Amino acid sequence: MHEITFSSRAGLPGQSETQVTVSGDAVTVDGIAYDLSAVPEGGFAEADGDLHPFRGRTARSGGVLHYCLRWRFDPATAEPAQPAALPTAVLTAGPVPDAITRLEGAA
Question: How far is CA 55 from CA 8, 38, 50, in A?
């Protein structure tokens, strides 16, 4: 199971929005798979550098992977004022739901 916190930021014009799916201990972000199976129970891992979508530590507790992802969105379709609290999602498999509050009628 994955408990994901989203650190949202507006993308640049023409930049695609973040797309994420999870399966087992893997998370795929914008087509790149990250295998998190090496994160031990009760332990954590930290990604090196800036060429990854993670913010801070990835931890495993009670069999659940906890991590924060950078989440890029299109400001043209988003409400200008996003919630102050970082959104979260908990899921075991499949696509991660959109973490952004959208403008009414925006796709």
Answer: 11, 18, 9
Interval 38-57: pLDDT, tens:
999 999 999 888 789 999 99
pLDDT band at residue 19 under the 50/70/90 scheme? very high
Tokens linked to 65:
């992977």
pLDDT in tens, 54-72: 999 999 999 999 999 999 9
The C-alpha atoms of residue 72 and residue 53 are separated, in whole angstroms, by 10
Report yes or no: 45 and 57 within 8 Å, Cβ to Cβ: yes
Using the CB atoms, write b or e for 21-54: b if 16+ within 10 Å. Answer: ebeeeebebeeeebebeebeeeeebeeeeeeebb
Tokens standing for residue 84: 């102050």
CA 54 – CA 5 distance, rounded (Å): 10
Q: Give the C-alpha separation, 48 to 15, whole Å.
A: 24
Please give the Cα distance from 101 to 33 (Å, whole number): 26
> Which tokens sit at 2?
């994955």
